[in-house]
Amino acid sequence: MYFKELNSIKKSNRLRTRKIYDQNLIDLASNDYLGLASNKELFQNAYKRVLQEQYTSPKASMLVNGYSLIHKEFEDALKKANNFEDALVVGSGFLANISLIEALVRKGDVLFIDEEYHASGMLATKLLNEKQVIVFKHNDYKDLQIKFKNTENKGRKIIAIEGVYSMQGDLAPKQIFDFANEENALLIVDEAHSSGVIGDNLLGIFDFYKIKPKKNHIKMGTLGKAYGSYGAYILASANIIEFLLNRAKAVIYTTAPSLFDMALGHESLKYILENKEKLKEKISANLQVINDNLGISSHSLIIPIEIGNNKKVLEIQDILKQKGFLVGAIRQPTVKNAIIRLIAKVDVSSKDLAKTCSILEELR
Prior knowledge:
CATH topology of the largest domain: Aspartate Aminotransferase, domain 2
Largest sheet: 7 strands, mixed
Mean pLDDT: 96
CATH architecture of the largest domain: 3-Layer(aba) Sandwich
Helix content: 40-55%
CATH class of the largest domain: Alpha Beta
Distance between the termini: 38 Å
Radius of gyration: 21 Å
Order of helices and strands: HEHHHEHEHEHEHEHEEHHHHEHEEEH
Oligomer: single chain
Strand order of the largest sheet: 2-8-7-6-5-3-4
Structural class: alpha/beta
């Protein structure tokens, strides 16, 4: 079964496989932006915190008896740090996007979503009436304005964007935030790749643009990237969080998030806030190496290098592996044209990063 489909994928050099990579490779491929996935002290602190509880598993959904003090402590810390009214932890970023879009877009509402929004959000739109979903050009706030003003509906208008886009590493323009406020539209911001990386306090794009959260703002963030854990969270007004608890199927009908993952996420949040100046210096230094060697100016640690050929990106990835470096070889359907996705992680030395860039400059 599916032999023809698999053969077609193989012929186009798009076949994906699970691999266990050599741990001696210098990691320039993962979303572990701050290198916290290898921080044993944070791991041990989280382990000790979970052992203080009677149970080490959530046991049930959050609305039965799966909600614990560990969940609440982390939610309280998140809403305080990010200056939002309330918070809700969930099992993954995928579940968070499903929850937000499936639950918040009610009858009569219209969702305006960036064409490069994460696959989880795009999948969630399939649960809606197609007339309720309007896709606007990537980061094009003028296209959004035109489509927004030409759309008549009886209910709410909701906009969905990402803070930093996962493949190109570009930031959402502030004009979209301003426009949402002017129109009193609900604004969903997926901060999976921006939280922990940009902003004065490394809290993401709200922090980067110095935007004070308002009642119409919703922030979603994940723990599997800069936070070196697993899971996600939603930040919003108390009213919206209460509504999600009562309407979001991906919250109501799933087991509450892992206690250990939440405890580790909490440890990472504390670490980021306590070490933000040192981390920002290293982020800035690595981005300068990228600019000096590849001529690419970026605010995020995601550095896309367009190759355009599926076979070639795999060859480049293999050559770099042979030299001790691991980068991402990203192909369709994740991107329109094949790219090498280089992550300028803070735990990678400037020397190793410069060497990787030099090799890439020769090969691209």
